[in-house]
Amino acid sequence: MNMPKIPLGEWIDSLVNWITITFTGLFSFLNSTIEGLLNILVDVLSAGPPVVIMMILALLVTYTSKWPLGIFTIICLLLIDNLGYWESSIQTLAIVILSGILTVVVGLPIGVWCAQRKSVRNIITPILDFMQTMPAFVYLIPAILFFGIGVVPGIIASFIFAIAPTIRMTILGIQEVPKDLIEASDAFGSNSSQKLFKVQLPLATPTIMAGVNQSIMLALSMVVTASLVGAPGLGADVYRAVSQINVGQGFEAGLSIVFIAIILDRITQNLRKPAYERIVSRKIVFSILAILVVFTALISEVKNEEVEEGNPSGVGAQTEYEIIGIEPGAGIMTQARNAMKDYGLDNWQLVEGSSAAMVAELKKAYDQKELIIITGWSPHWMFSSFDLKYLDDPNETFGGSEEIHTIVRKGLDQDAPGANTILDQFFWETIDMEEVMVQIEEGTDPAQAAEEWIAAHQDKVAQWTNGAQEGNGNPIKLVYVAWDTEIASTHVIGKVLEQNGYNVTLSQVEVGPMFASVANGSADAMVAAWLPSTHLEYYNTYKDDIVDFGPNLQGTKNGLVVPEYVDIDSIEDLK
Ligand code: PBE
């Protein structure tokens, strides 16, 4: 059938665009409110030495779920601290608690409303179904555009993902209240709010709490996803471990998440009927807790006021001492971390996320002429779309000018000699790569951009394929990371191999897995090794199990990049 494609994607794009522009004010208000609340929570949880918080949490678990669990809690928390994940855990705990509070504050009234009105319920239920089945990743995309990268889009996405159970269970709980009790309260002449607060809600509480418990567990399950857009905490530790193939670290961080899950689960499950309620009443415990929280919050706010120093109009203050980074495993991230040490930028933070999120953040800041510092590299189309400059790097922490190498698995010359030859002879210039990148950025599909470039540069391609045997449909698997540079190069070389008779698959992975897969032979080749310095660590780890074909492009550069209108010139100026 020859029907034109319905431009659903484009409609959504323009809708999101419109929302972004129209509600800028609202978003920045929400952004600062949520971030402010989160900071308070983090401050409260990290006031005083860790042991104090551990004791309080353990006591709370003991109170709600008996002493053996309290002991278990203290052991878990001590272990987390010992493994070095205490700070991350505090971040995660704060994020989950805040998402939990938000789901209750928003979800409960919606649930009540749905329970009372069938028409509302008929509208909300399908929306909830939709929200729960849409992959949570998808929410991250508009969330980045609305809120920038950092913890807020993560919290919002978790909130959307997690709110459904609270609403559903509230509806269920209220509907399950026996009819005769409602009739009785009607008979006593109670109005609808009396009925709600004195009869329905109290009777529905166990069901509602089960929903809240589910919501909190769902929010916790979002922490890894949220770290893709820069949310800190245990999720970021897991993500970093994946992108660097660090099994041990992945397990430790994962285990910490499990511990936090158990603790939160026990507390929320038994909150309504604590195990030791007879000994100390709930009111007393919760009042003490509330007073403690408010008190620490106030104290840490006062302390914060005192330490607020430095020049409020300086670059640091205006960027909140944040450098916007990319995938945690990227070589440039290691360089940036080293640079922060080298140049003594102790109060700065490197935000982890992804290349796409970084670019979105840059676009946003650039449009509003706000200060921003990113980890940047060339060749990259961003230099032609925006007026940008590299900050001077007198210590050469970012390694100066580099090359991109082609690396193939051992034995490829035997199994696919033609592909081996082509990959070996693949070499092009920065302007070639840029041509493809700009095309892709302007909306051309990468495969098509590659084809067009090949058609326009037959002479160059002929040099690569010179003397290469036909592929006869043999499979070739190329791996790459979703950096703009490698999207371009991998698609071009992939198409060339295809035109020479190979059956090519491209697979997009994280940095560590990219090297590892070529080393263990599960992928055939990659054209994305930035050397000698950016990927040195990966290179050294795998160098005995790979074949290095040398550079396919020369003259690349990494560094910290700012828009031209930012009036500093060197990394040293950030101090
Ligand atoms: N980058 C920049 C790669 C190589 C240099 C993002 C394309 C990286 O940092 O690992």
Automatic annotation (TrEMBL):
SUPFAM superfamilies associated with the record: MetI-like, Periplasmic binding protein-like II
Entry keywords, A to Z: Cell membrane, Membrane, Transmembrane, Transmembrane helix, Transport
Chief location of this protein within or outside the cell: membrane
Topological type in the membrane: Multi-pass membrane protein
GO molecular function: amine transmembrane transporter activity; carnitine transmembrane transporter activity
ABC transmembrane type-1 domain sequence ranges: 89-268
TM helices/strands, residue ranges: 12-30, 37-61, 67-86, 93-116, 136-164, 216-235, 247-264, 284-302
Superkingdom assignment: Bacteria
InterPro entries from the UniProt entry: ABC_Gly_betaine_transp_sub-bd, MetI-like, MetI-like_sf
Localization: Cell membrane; Membrane
Keyword Phosphoprotein in record: no
GO cellular component: ATP-binding cassette (ABC) transporter complex
GO biological process, one term: glycine betaine transport
Sequence similarity: In the N-terminal section; belongs to the binding-protein-dependent transport system permease family. Belongs to the binding-protein-dependent transport system permease family.
Protein name from the UniProt record: ABC transmembrane type-1 domain-containing protein
